[in-house]
Please model this.
Amino acid sequence: MMPPRQLDLDLLRTLVNIVDSGSFSAAAERLGRTQSAVSLQVKRLEDQVGHALLDRAQGRLSGPTEEGRVLLDYARRLLRLHDEACSVFAAPTPSGQLRVGLPEELMEDLFPAVLPSFAQACPHVALSLRSELSMRLNQALEAGELDLAVVKRMGGDVTPPPGQGELLLRQEALAWYRGEGSEADQQRPLPLAVFQEGCVFRMAGLAALAQAGIAARLCFTGHSVTGIRHAVASGLAVTPLPTSLARPGLVPVSPGLPALPAIALVARWRGPEPLPSARRLLALLQRQL
Model:
């Protein structure tokens, strides 16, 4: 039999619903069709591909056949892309202004990959960015100076402030790093390279050292993650960083220094729901993360 020149997405959706629901009757209810109509659609799809797609041993559905599993994988991907395309054009195109605050390291490591996609998805949105410490971004959001703030906090479940919504984007471990070949972690007081006062990484590191009774001294205070990396890689100091920000030339410090808490990256906005343009941006950020 000649292979089909094209597959009917409606028939593929029926196949997916039968497998996911476990029966023809449940799929018919989901799709708003009669059970006989669903059976007919499966027969048409099987005729198109030239293979039995569902195992109906002894009149009972026991799952997809081997060929059915192969087609099912393609069907899920095709339907996902189809539904995503429909949702993009069904929703109104956002417009207006979007004021976003985010930590400096996201400007360097994450946002350049997201910005072109956002500009394409929201061509009528005037985007303005502000890079600050999380503490200041929270203050700016509360003051109504931002529509969306991407901020860091120590991990764990924290209720957002009244009048704000929140979405967890990522949670990862903090670790101590030294320069490759450096013995800065052996020095006492411990030499530190940290961000300016108010940084979550800095607060977590200093708190852990104080609790462990390890004296420390600030050797480098910077505003950018690039400066911190250079100071550590040169052997000047050690630093607390999330694993995603480590780069060649930095190695984790194994024993000798206290464990650090997890750090959460969260998005916050004023009101119960973010602006439509902020939702688009958050979806792109989540995909990139």
